[in-house]
Design goal:
149 residues; mainly beta; eleven-stranded antiparallel β-sheet; cell membrane; signal; LpqH
């Protein structure tokens, strides 16, 4: 359990950090596109994500990776996709209701559907409580819908 929680927390913070470093500007990178005005919806366990300004979601493509995400005062949302036809989900990171949730190797599951520049990432993320890591594993279904320019 501790390994899964540690891995989930690492995925959450690494994904949010990747997006924070990569979003919004392609200056000095090999980014083919960058956007900070994507129209985004995020639901976790059937409820809209709160505490994150989804109007400031960044979408950045660097090499064969697409980083999507935003941070806020009470958490963030991030995803890393491997470009392809179809693209694949590498990581997802969410903070919701005091929990750090993630998808990555051996943790959770997620798929992505693409319609033009609109990405729909859905699945089940798992992790645990940030304030009480010993509370046990938390699993929640999620959906991230973002349009990147």
């Amino acid at each position: 359990m501790n390994r899964t929680l540690a891995l989930s927390s690492a995925i959450v913070f690494a994904s949010i950090g990747l997006v924070a470093c990569g979003g919004g500007s392609d200056k000095g990178s090999d980014s083919n596109s960058a956007s900070t005005d994507a129209k985004t919806t995020v639901t976790v366990d059937g409820k809209e994500l709160t505490g994150v300004d989804l109007s400031k979601v960044g979408c950045t493509k660097q090499g064969d990776r697409i980083a999507i995400g935003a941070g806020g005062t009470s958490g963030g949302v991030g995803a890393t996709l491997k470009d392809g036809n179809p693209p694949t989900v590498e990581t997802v990171a969410l903070t919701v209701d005091g929990n750090a949730l993630g998808v990555g190797p051996g943790v959770g599951e997620a798929t992505v559907k693409v319609d033009g520049k609109r990405y729909t990432i859905s699945g089940t993320a798992q992790g645990g409580s940030l304030s009480n890591p010993m509370a046990g594993i938390v699993k929640k279904p999620f959906e991230i819908v973002v349009s990147c320019s």
